[in-house]
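Exercise 7b. C-alpha cells:
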C-alpha cells in the first residue's frame, strides 16, 4: 500500500452528506459507508479530525432569513452539528474506530469540551476526533470552524467532501459547460466568489498556507485516493 501524502487531516463534511437520498435527517447506511472509508484511512496511519455541519437538521442562516434572531438561529445550528457528530461517532465505533466527540459549547454529558492539547493527544493515540458546535460563536460557519480547528491541531490539509468532483467556475448542476479547476489559488477563489468555503475560511487558510482539497464524497474510495495524493478533485493552494 502506498504511503499517505498527509499525516494529519481535517475532513470537512456537510450535514447534507449524512442525508443520503432523504430530504431531512440522517441515513444510517450513509453514515456507515462514510465510517468505513474513514476507518480505512485510519488503518493507513493517518490522524483524522472531522468537522461536520448541521444543514440536514437545521440551518441558522435560513432561519434567520425567515425572521428568527440570527444568534439564536446559529446556536440552534450548532446543536444540530452535535447531533450529527454523535451519529457519526456511533457509526465509526461500530466499525471499531475509537472516536471522541469534542464540542465548542460545553455539554459534558455527551461530549468533551474543546481543549486543543487534549484533541491533539487523541489524534496522536490514533483516535478520530469529531468537532461539533462549530466555533461556539454565532455568525461563523462550520467552514470557518474547519479552518480554525485545522490550524489549531496543525493539520496538513483540509479535505472538503462535497457532492461534486471539484471546484468549477459555475454550478455544474446548472451549467453543463462549467469548467473544472485541477488547481486554483486562494485569491482566485475569493475574487471569483467560488462557493468552495466561505471567505473567512479561505482567508484563514491563505494566511496560513493550508491547502484545501475539494472532492466528491459520493464516489467510493475517494477519501483514500485523496489521502494518497492522487489527483482527485481540485486543490486550493498558493
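Sequence design result:
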Amino acid at each position: 500500500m502506498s504511503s499517505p501524502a498527509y499525516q494529519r487531516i481535517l475532513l470537512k463534511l456537510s450535514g447534507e452528506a449524512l442525508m443520503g437520498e432523504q430530504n431531512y435527517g440522517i441515513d444510517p447506511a450513509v453514515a456507515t459507508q462514510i465510517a468505513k472509508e474513514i476507518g480505512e484511512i485510519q488503518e493507513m496511519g493517518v490522524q483524522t479530525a472531522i468537522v461536520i455541519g448541521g444543514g440536514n437538521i437545521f440551518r441558522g442562516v435560513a432561519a434567520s432569513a425567515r425572521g428568527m434572531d440570527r444568534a439564536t438561529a446559529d446556536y440552534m445550528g450548532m446543536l444540530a452539528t452535535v447531533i450529527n457528530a454523535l451519529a457519526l461517532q456511533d457509526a465509526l465505533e461500530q466499525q471499531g474506530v475509537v472516536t471522541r466527540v469534542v464540542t465548542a459549547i460545553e455539554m459534558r454529558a455527551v461530549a468533551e469540551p474543546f481543549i486543543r492539547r487534549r484533541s491533539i493527544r487523541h489524534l496522536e493515540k490514533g483516535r478520530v476526533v469529531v468537532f461539533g458546535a462549530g466555533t461556539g460563536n454565532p455568525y461563523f460557519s462550520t467552514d470557518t470552524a474547519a479552518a480554525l480547528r485545522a490550524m489549531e491541531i496543525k493539520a496538513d490539509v483540509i479535505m472538503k467532501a462535497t457532492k461534486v468532483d471539484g471546484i468549477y467556475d459555475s454550478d455544474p448542476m446548472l451549467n453543463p459547460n462549467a469548467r473544472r479547476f485541477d488547481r486554483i489559488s486562494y485569491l482566485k477563489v475569493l475574487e471569483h466568489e467560488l462557493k468552495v468555503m466561505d471567505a473567512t475560511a479561505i482567508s484563514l487558510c491563505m494566511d496560513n498556507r493550508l491547502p484545501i482539497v475539494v472532492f466528491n464524497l459520493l464516489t467510493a474510495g475517494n477519501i483514500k485516493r485523496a489521502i494518497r495524493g492522487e489527483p482527485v478533485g481540485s486543490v486550493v493552494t498558493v
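Instructor comment: The chain has eight helices and eleven strands. The longest helix spans residues 70-94.
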